[in-house]
Amino acid sequence: MTHPMPSSAPVSSDAVNALNESERKRIEAKSALFAPPTPVTEDGRRELVGLSREELAEVLTEIGEKPFRAKQLWHWIYHQGVTDFSRMSTIARPLQAKLEKHFIVGRPSLTTQQTSKDDTRKFLFRFRDGQEAETVYIPDRREDRGAVCISSQVGCTLSCTFCHTGTQKLVRNLGAAEIVGQFMAARDSYGEWPSPKGDTPRLLSTIVLMGMGEPLYNYENVAKAMKIIMDGEGIALSRRRITLSTSGVVPMMDRCGDELGINLAISLHAVRNDLRDQLVPLNRKYPIEELMAACHRYPAASNSRRITFEYIMIRDVNDSDAEARELVRLIRGLPAKVNLIPFNPWPGSDFRPSTRERLASFAQIVMDAGYAAPIRMPRGKDILAACGQLKTQSERKRQAESRRNEA
Ligand code: SF4
């Protein structure tokens, strides 16, 4: 496949839009092939989590109820976190029973939950069709708040060579109910209901779409889920507290910025196309120049909302001083910060993490240029909650268990 436009030629914004539009259509058509199953229980009840407000009003109309009930239900589902219709005290008992008959307010079921020595908590959730994905809560070490890392797909189509998750084929996209459900179930685990309002501190205070999968290859479901989470009458998490991490699906970045306005993180990991082509093969389609141009266009970026560049530090591969200087050149003019992440070794990978000295020297060059460059040490190592290792280990564990059972 050729690149949508030559990487160095000046191209008008109309031409960029036209090319992006056709690419977007292609990506959306491909995404539809991996659509999640309809969220309906075996006894035919419709899942209400994951419906937009309009869809909620529609399903209520279908059972002969007035659409205004949607507002009431929204409050109970997303503000109060109630899953049992009989606890929705502002709804009359006969209607509670009717809702129970037709609908369900569910959660993904919890297969395993582990809490690390550093308090990172990893959840393995199972969905109705038996597929599973992992979610991780990473508490802030100094304050009562933390980030929930959410998965957007089961498996991944991209094969970033440093990522263990990337060795698992894409099984399917997660639906809006399953994406919102991960966050709601994580909040169940900490009892964080009703949803804190306004400036009231939240324990689960930010969302990072950095779990399994490429969120921009499942944009429709991710966008729907984020709109539900941002809705001011429900969970009401500000767009400033949500970060989507992409390997660089350029045509979808504009749409994400325009429609959601959430923060952006880029899995960069290399500053030259020849190396990035190997580490992040999606680069062959959307090379660094196009990626950086899309970052410059990203509407939600500002000095208070910087674009985060994730950079896995791999010994003798991408961690030289020259590469640090090139990184600075690439991000010049952008409101940006750089997260430096020492590579997390996994069986079968020849890569090794950069040395402490290399990390320090690289970080210093970036900081001297005026950019924040924190070195992110892996969290939850003892429970295998490190980036890109989650589902794989769970699968391997289950395979070992089933082998034992068969023996
Ligand atoms: S880094 Fe992200 S996009 Fe790349 S293979 Fe891993 S999960 Fe997929």
Automatic annotation (TrEMBL):
Transmembrane segments: none annotated. CDD domains: Radical_SAM. The keyword Metal-binding applies. Residues 1-22 are annotated as: Disordered. It is found in: Cytoplasm. Its EC number is 2.1.1.192. Residues 142-382 form the Radical SAM core domain. The active site is at residues 134, 387. SUPFAM superfamilies: Radical SAM enzymes (SSF102114). It comes from the Bacteria. It catalyses: adenosine(2503) in 23S rRNA + 2 reduced [2Fe-2S]-[ferredoxin] + 2 S-adenosyl-L-methionine = 2-methyladenosine(2503) in 23S rRNA + 5'-deoxyadenosine + L-methionine + 2 oxidized [2Fe-2S]-[ferredoxin] + S-adenosyl-L-homocysteine; adenosine(37) in tRNA + 2 reduced [2Fe-2S]-[ferredoxin] + 2 S-adenosyl-L-methionine = 2-methyladenosine(37) in tRNA + 5'-deoxyadenosine + L-methionine + 2 oxidized [2Fe-2S]-[ferredoxin] + S-adenosyl-L-homocysteine. Its cofactor is [4Fe-4S] cluster. [4Fe-4S] cluster binds at residues 156, 160, 163. Binds 1 [4Fe-4S] cluster. The cluster is coordinated with 3 cysteines and an exchangeable S-adenosyl-L-methionine. S-adenosyl-L-methionine binds at residues 213-214, 245, 267-269, 344. Keywords: 4Fe-4S, Cytoplasm, Disulfide bond, Iron, Iron-sulfur, Metal-binding, Methyltransferase, rRNA processing, S-adenosyl-L-methionine, Transferase, tRNA processing. It holds the Pfam family Radical_SAM. Specifically methylates position 2 of adenine 2503 in 23S rRNA and position 2 of adenine 37 in tRNAs. m2A2503 modification seems to play a crucial role in the proofreading step occurring at the peptidyl transferase center and thus would serve to optimize ribosomal fidelity. HAMAP family: RNA_methyltr_RlmN (MF_01849). Reaction proceeds by a ping-pong mechanism involving intermediate methylation of a conserved cysteine residue. Belongs to the radical SAM superfamily. RlmN family. This is Dual-specificity RNA methyltransferase RlmN. It comes from Bombella mellum.
